[in-house]
Amino acid sequence: MTTILHADMDAFYASVEQRDDPSLRGQPVIVGGLGKRGVVCAASYEARRFGVRSAMPIAKAHRLCPKGVFLPPRMSQYARISADVREIFYRFTPLVEPLSLDEAYLDCSGSLRLFAGARSIAEAIRAAIRNELSLPVSVGAGSGKLVAKIACARAKPDGLLLVDEHDTDAFLRPLPIAEIWGVGPSTEKRLHALGIATIGQLADFDTNRLERALGSWATVLQGLARGEDLRTVEADRGRKSYGEENTFPEDAVDADLIDAMLLAHAETVARRLRHDARKARTITLKWRASGAGVEWRLSTRSQTMAEASDDGVVIARVAAQLWRAEAEHPPIRLLGVQVTNLDGDRPVQLGLFRSEEEVRNEALNKALDQIVTRFGTGAVRRGGRPQG
């Protein structure tokens, strides 16, 4: 039986700020851009009582919650804590698919017997994140991604909801169609025009008529409505690449923020490489620009090095060089670092003459890994910015 978990940190950025500054606990904390065009990245549950929500203009949040505590985002700190959360996930399954810094899918099908079932795994994950990181997380579980994600949303805040495979149909049928992955405002409007308002109505609707209205997409949507979710968890481990990316809650233009994220992503990828005794030769930078006509266009640039590396400084340096070589630096919504062309399945040939810097960095990385393993990623980090 397939069992998918969806784990989502509760009000992640705001919860981190409240954890790091105890004076903020119980206060309406709002994290986001503080300029005139700023957008809310995250709102604590205290702020949500005033109607403040993510992606809301900061100006509106000020009107709704004038006594709120407004803070700029600290993306590098959130990325480091996200890496800690990821390592907790890996204790229970190697099949982890990150969606952003604060949420991920986990395929626990192969771990159920080892950990006495899905509920035990979910409870253990929640307890580890609470005890080790002092942060809340909600978890949903089901036979597919769609059910797990919806269950997680209904478990918030700081809750757990498991949907048994036999209960999937009863769980989905009364829900609005907007809950289905891929149903945006446009598709929702077209479905409403057909008299379809709930997932159950979509599941029962005439397939031929639905295909005439929506095309080939109709079959996928109706399958999801019937609980037929064939999407798998796409994990790094055991694959031909390692990657880390994040979607910014608002357009990123600040060079220091982009550099901080490149370094954070590179360090996380490098740590995974070293954990699995792998090295990579090809570094790929990917980003998604924001703005009319380009918001869904993913751009990538790659460079293959002469020698494979598992050093975050090297990976960050190459990624930064690729970014700075671009003629234009538009506002971006997504930023990622991926490595491919891996060594590790075979012995890695070392250079005859290794530089003093290489030897020093290898020793430093080993020491950093030992500290991170014992105390977590927040215990130590590199300073500065990637040189490119």
What does this protein look like?
It contains 14 helices and 12 strands. It has 388 residues and is α+β, with helices and mostly antiparallel strands. The protein has 4 domains: 99 residues, 2-Layer Sandwich (Alpha-Beta Plaits), CATH 3.30.70; 63 residues, MutS, DNA mismatch repair protein, domain I; 50 residues, 5' to 3' exonuclease, C-terminal subdomain (DNA polymerase, domain 1, Orthogonal Bundle); 138 residues, Dna Ligase, domain 1, CATH 3.30.1490.100. About 4% of the residues have low confidence.
Brief summary:
The chain contains 14 helices and 12 strands.
Q: Can you give keywords for this protein?
A:
4-stranded antiparallel beta sheet; DNA polymerase, domain 1; 4 domains; 21% strand; Alpha-Beta Plaits; 388 residues; MutS, DNA mismatch repair protein, domain I; 5-stranded mixed beta sheet; alpha+beta
| Poorly predicted spans | 345-354, 376-381
According to DSSP, the number of beta strands is 12
Q: What is the CATH domain class of the largest domain?
A: Alpha Beta
Query: Could you give the order of strands across the largest sheet?
Result: 5-6-1-7-8
| Helicity level | 25-40%
Shape: globular
CATH fourth-tier homologous superfamily of the largest domain: DNA polymerase, Y-family, little finger domain
CATH architecture of the largest domain: 2-Layer Sandwich
What is the number of independent domains?
4
The largest pleated sheet is described as:
5 strands, mixed
CATH fold assignment of the largest domain: Dna Ligase, domain 1
Distance linking N and C termini: 48 Å
- Report the total helices: 14
The H/E string reads EHEEHHEHEEHEHEHHHHHEHEEHEH
Structural class: alpha+beta
The fraction of residues assigned to DSSP E strands is: 15-25%
Average predicted confidence as pLDDT:
85
Radius of gyration in whole Å, from Cα?
22 Å
Quaternary structure classification: single chain
